[in-house]
Design brief:
Length: 306
């Protein structure tokens, strides 16, 4: 009897593990389920559109993100913000010694984020090392300020694609990195498809806020939805309650274009001392259709206790 009970459980685990696969190449890491990609992480620098300055090239970001049916829910290099890259992160307003490196706005050429190396690959995810580096002095000498460990873990079901985004940032410089209170920048940012606008998409937060009133409000989760070539799709981002200043404030746009940044320094500044590490955890859930609040609250209840 014991063997008959255990055997089906083992078989289910093997089948579930085989559903998600991770394929690494020289340029990227692709996670898929069956024949449908879930996400692509870029190890190699992706060039900007033709005619744009080469400084807008970047590695160390995720695009595209897809729903279970394969609908794309991210966009990169939009005309209005060439440095927006699907799902990514970077600090904006900073102070480091005598310098003020901006790791976000690539056009200023004072800093950037880049992929460094693969640390680990599993059957359902990967861990990479990234760097937030500053360009210092007249000769623009590279100086790594933050060394990051980014872990991505995926679980895919018929209901949704679940992605855990765990980022650890360590100050590897000899000076503290000051992050003053500022309206955006931080450990997770998102840019929606270029076709999403005020007429066909919207936001919904855990407190019921939408496009017009969600900016600078605190939320456990924020869902964004719009059309894809596979039908409507929703991307829901959840901030872990253990994060600094949780539930964190959001940076959203009311004008119709779709952008979101989880911004823990909107109200409270943060200082990362030399050799100090900070940890950030988020869960991203991509589902087909418009937001289902009952399902989202169930997913949130399962995540907040982790």
């Amino acid at each position: 009897m014991a063997l008959r009970l255990i055997f089906p459980i083992l078989m289910f685990s093997l089948v579930a593990a085989d559903e998600v696969k991770v394929v690494e190449s020289q340029r990227s890491i692709v996670i898929s389920r069956g024949e449908t990609d879930i996400l692509t992480y870029h190890k190699a620098e992706v060039p900007p559109p033709e005619g744009a300055r080469k400084v807008y090239r970047r590695s160390g970001f995720i695009h595209p993100l897809k729903s279970p049916k394969g609908g794309v829910v991210t966009g990169i290099h939009p005309d209005d913000h060439l440095h927006h890259l699907g799902l990514w992160h970077a600090w904006v307003k900073t102070k480091h010694g005598k310098d003020q490196p901006d790791f976000w706005n690539l056009g200023g050429e004072s800093g950037r984020v880049r992929f460094s190396k693969l640390l680990k690959k599993s059957t359902s995810g990967f861990t990479v090392e990234q760097e937030q580096l500053a360009y210092k002095g007249a000769n623009k000498k590279e100086s790594v300020i933050l060394r990051e460990v980014l872990s991505i873990a995926v679980d895919a079901t018929e209901e949704a694609n679940f992605i855990d985004y765990h980022l650890i940032q360590k100050n590897v410089s000899s000076e503290m990195l000051e992050l003053p209170a500022y309206r955006y920048g931080g450990p997770l940012a998102y840019r929606g498809p270029h076709s999403w606008n005020k007429e066909n998409s919207d936001y919904l937060t855990s407190t019921g806020k939408k496009r017009a009133d969600s900016h600078a409000t605190r939320a456990d989760w924020c869902a964004i939805f719009g059309p894809t070539d596979k039908g409507d799709a929703t991307i829901t981002m959840m901030g872990h309650p253990g994060n600094f200043d949780a539930p964190q404030r959001l940076r959203t746009w009311p004008d119709g274009k779709v952008f979101l940044c989880w911004t823990p320094i909107q109200e409270k500044p943060l200082v990362i001392q030399p050799d100090q590490s900070v940890s950030w955890k988020y869960r991203i859930v991509i589902s087909d259709g418009k937001p289902d609040q009952t399902a989202i609250n169930r997913w949130w209840a399962g995540y907040r206790g982790k």
